[in-house]
Amino acid sequence: MSSPPAKLRVQPDDESPAILPDELITEVLSHADVKSLMQMRCVSKTWDAMISDPKFVKLHLKRASRNPSLTLFLSKSRIDGDNNVVPFPVSCLIENPMITLPNDPYFRLRAKECRYVIGSCNGWLCLLGYSSIGAYRQIWLRFWNPAMHKMTEKLGYIWDNILGLYTHFKFAFGYDELSETYKVVLLILDEARNRTNVQILSLGDDMWRSIQSFPAVPLPFRYSNPGVNDVVYLNGSLNWLALRDSFRSIGVYGWKNVNVKEFVIISLDLGTETYRQLMPPCGFDEMSPVEPSICVLKDCLCFSNDYKRTDFVIWKMEVFGVEESWTQLFRISYQNLQSMHLDFVDLQYSQWLPLHLSDHGDTLILANKQERQAILYNLRDNRAVRTRITDDIQWFSAKVHVESLVSDILKPQVHQP
Amino acid sequence: MASSSSNLISLKTSDGTVFKVERALAKTMKTVQAIIEEADANIYMIPIHNVFSHHMDMIIDYYKLSVAGKSKEFSVEKLDNDELKDFLLAVHYLNMEDLFEVLTQAVADRLEKKSVGYVRKYFGIENDFTPEEYAAIRKKNDWAFKGDDIEPEEDEEKQEE
Prior knowledge:
heterodimer; A: 417 residues; five-stranded antiparallel β-sheet; globular; disordered N terminus; B: mainly alpha; three-stranded mixed β-sheet
């Protein structure tokens, strides 16, 4: 990246304090927040060019990724059914303030004609909306970078029957680094034909296109809200936990009858658009009534399961794709999570989802599905503390999100005639 | 290639003070480390240009805190903006990765909510927009100027006088 020419500098009036060289200016600005940087575009033409430069945007994104947020999905009003999505810095969450989130219209989804958040990638949120017409629904996507105040039009329209969105559609959002294209993947579960069809929308294209069908049965496959964390984006791939073979009906306590060997992680490479299958850790050798899950912690794929209804175990795949590299990361006894005083829930049957692990590895943020709660678990002294945000947040839909300067994600088709 | 056989390295600051520092601390200064490795004979004293004794004091403070796992307690709050810039330049010269991160973040934090005029002055940047160009770019990014606690532009302040 070319540095601004020195001739645009002026010496300050007073006795000269130091002037920072260009490379230091870039370093300093890469630590600034998006709002400040948007103001600083007005400093000079050179600064405007520098802040918009793709290399700077990338550098800034890399820095921002060290200071992520979680998108808190909640409804402020039970009456109008409008959902809010509020990015909340993890560093602030860990301080555990007792607050109520402000009801800022900026974070409401209805005004954006959307209802759910499918995913977050490079500072952009993939939103989903729909409208019902008789027995049918029209579904669309919309993309929003809250930090940059930028939003796309509605796109990727799909028609389906009125229940489809909740029973057999699964959306996922990711980014292919090679082609620099953002993609949305749609799994369409077809229980009758014992098959899951897959469609991909590359942002910038007009239409969805089919790819090879999904080689297993994605979990969970019934009655999950769009935007619940059931897919994991990691380094250019989308990953789902799945079961081999055929569809089956799994009730709340039916998991015990599933053989552990039927679990598989299906990883879709967003560049080649091909699948690979990854085995869960071999240490996961006994099924329990509680469904296991996958997540990302510290940039690694992780697998979590219940162990004999006494502990919650998290495994980490140290090297992506290398099954021998699964190592046990944590084993947390439910006793230590009991400090939450959950009277009506049998903790051993509730489902936990790790959301974030702090930099120094001492605080783990865990979401509890049944209680719609999150806890901060201190790994040094094994103490759990409930988060004190007073709103009713759907923690199982929280996405890891960063502030980014990426201003445009609809890649124009380069090779159109 | 052999350097001083003792565990202490002598560093001489621009203002002539000699600091004897642990080898481990000297290792965090990539510039110093390079000098040590290049020397054929024992190094008696390494001069560190652009680094003053008050900078070394803070560097040693930071080192002690980070060794104790308390690097988060290190603060540059007491430094004014110019002192912070000077310190950043010294640490940049010494090529100290961690402390450099801390200081660049500290400078970035101080610029948050400051006016465009303030930022220009801080970095010594001349405004090369014509008034029309400035109005246009200002308008385009107007949303970024709204919100709490944002300092008014210098020229706006002058108008009020």
